Amino acid sequence: MSLILILEQILNGLQFGVMLFLMAAGLTLVFGVMGLINLAHGALYMVGAFAAAIVAAWTGSFVLALAASLVAAAAAGALVELLVIRKLYDRDHLDQVLATFALILVFSEGTRWIFGSFPLFLDVPSYLSGPVTLPGGIQYPLYRLTIIAIGLVVATGLFWLIARTRIGIQIRAGESDREMIAALGVDISVLYTLVFALGAALAGLAGALVGAIQSVQVGMGEPVLILAFVVIVIGGIGSIKGAMVGALLVGLTDTLGGVFLPRLFGLFMEPASATSVGASLASMLIYILMAVILLVRPSGLYGGQS
Amino acid sequence: MKTLKTMALATAVSTLAMAAAAETKIGMITTLSGGGAGLGVDVRDGFMLAIDQAGRDNVEVVIEDDQRKPESAVQIADRMIQSEKVDIMTGIIWSNLAMAVVPSATAQGVFYLSPNAGPSALAGKRCHENYFNVAWQNDNLHEAAGAYANDAELKNSYILAPNYPAGKDALTGYKRMYEGDLAGETYTKLGQTDYAAEIAQIRASGADSVYFFLPGGMGISFLKQYADSGVDLPVVGPAFSFDQGILQAVGGAALGIKNTSQWNKDLDTPANTAFVAAFEQKYDRLPSLYASQGYDTANLILSALDTADVSDKDAFRAALKAAKFDSVRGAFKFGNNHHPIQNIYVREVIQEGDVFTNKIIATGLENHADAYAADCKM
């Protein structure tokens, strides 16, 4: 096994992690600030991907498609917050789970009704397609490098927004004591709509970025949503830093485990059963990771005291 | 919405059927939502096209969505058998769901006709007199691909499939016929959408070709990422990743790829020509492999109903086994284990105007039966 292969797999893990971060950031913000469990986050990821596919088909421009994914997902998020989520803040988590689960069904069936059951076509633009050769002779798809770059830029922007800006201060304050910040004259409901739309936009961007290399289809957000929940549980609910670290941990564990566990079992088992056992164990690996982390730190790596 | 649609459909059909004396109730459990929905929708549309064309007023079809989840498939099956008293069941797309539903359904005396999944476990020792597979045994298309790989002089294949019953059948089937070496063998997660890690392994393995079985959206993701990775080895696959429903989403990445199938729209038989035209007219799209399998399944049931009543189980079973229907894939008959003996073709992905589609370029295996038939004592 060559060093090049290992390095390439680490890059793959990073890219997967960055994508998970885009998904988990919105989820953890909404959960941390508003105390709301939003199962419909995966639906917003799907909205972003579909919007990008439609705009790319109309205009042929990938940049416009990405912009459309941000706008469409943010708009859908704001709308959902105003119409449905707003009524759920004071309810318990079970009501929130039920209502947002219903939203998944509404979004999925609505999308199927408009676009049909077949996947849509969204392609990597020609100027980003094909592999590039990195130092050390690693061949790596340019588009995946672009995803890593975009993800890191967005993460930096988000840290800056939360840590350095006035609105970030309000968001963090709303996280600790929503009555007090409302009493200080901040319009808490506008703030909530903004946070929700921001989280939705990030999910939509992730959907569009990933849609170009995977398939744009109804229900595409659900598998990612489960992983995003694992990420925020590992990272600690409400923490952007936790989401980043958790996402990279999950991305690397999942990718490297899937590649190297079957090889490890291959050392002392016959090839066919080694690949089968290795693949089965690899798919459990991130949940084992989550369990171990929760044993050591019950509120996640960067979680609060609660 | 889904339930509403199903109910509306069921009511429409059942009102029609109200007057008839002898009524046959068919329960269809298939995947109409989530990642694998396109496959179930096509099976349903093909099936209902044949039912509509028959114009019989004594056949009722109840359709339910399993969401590709074994637990919901089992629940729906229990309800259909116990409270709705269906005579015949059909529709399941995925082998893991078939394994959860079929053995118990057939044990309770219901006929099950598979329009898609053909797990090896149900073809051999655990075959059942009430279980018929109208599509293929899971290994079949992969066996034809292995045979094609020999003809194309591929010597060192990297093979991959999802880690579930049909994935294991797929790689077993390929290896049964393929005579070259294996550069690597990987089982991926079912429903996986990112194949960067697998493609990196293919690049590093020194393979001269890639064989993969990744049905539905999984195959779209793999092919797009493969095309973008710069790995330039020839790819061979079964029809499932090159089917009409997904080729448009895969796009140019699939052009020229050879794949194996027991059906294609250019098969030149009167039944097939009529089917393709009728399907296009009714649904405004080209039929897929899955649609053809749904259509054949319905026509087999209808042909058996012409000669026997479903309440006379032995007569009905014999009528199914005789398979006196005009299959869209041409020659078709059942082997001793109630699985098809049929030709499997090699197709190539081509472009016709704006539409990506397939054309048959060779016959991979002729009158091919499955490898498990000998184990079935029936």
UniProtKB/TrEMBL annotation, chain A:
GO terms for cellular component: plasma membrane. GO terms for molecular function: transmembrane transporter activity. GO terms for biological process: amino acid transport. This is Putative branched-chain amino acid transport system, permease component. Belongs to the binding-protein-dependent transport system permease family. LivHM subfamily. The chain crosses the membrane at residues 16-36, 43-60, 66-85, 97-122, 142-163, 184-212, 224-240, 247-265, 277-296. It is a multi-pass membrane protein. Pfam families: BPD_transp_2. It comes from Phaeobacter porticola. Keywords: Amino-acid transport, Cell membrane, Membrane, Transmembrane, Transmembrane helix, Transport. It is found in: Cell membrane.
UniProtKB/TrEMBL annotation, chain B:
Residues 1-19 form the signal peptide. Residues 24-353 form the Leucine-binding protein domain. It comes from the Bacteria. Coiled coil: none annotated. The keyword Transport applies. Keywords: Amino-acid transport, Signal, Transport. GO terms for biological process: amino acid transport. It holds the Pfam family Peripla_BP_6. InterPro entries: BCAA_transport (IPR051010), Leu-bd (IPR028081), Peripla_BP_I (IPR028082). The keyword Transmembrane helix does not apply. Belongs to the leucine-binding protein family. This is Extracellular ligand binding domain-containing protein. It comes from Phaeobacter porticola. The lineage of its organism: Bacteria, Pseudomonadati, Pseudomonadota, Alphaproteobacteria, Rhodobacterales.
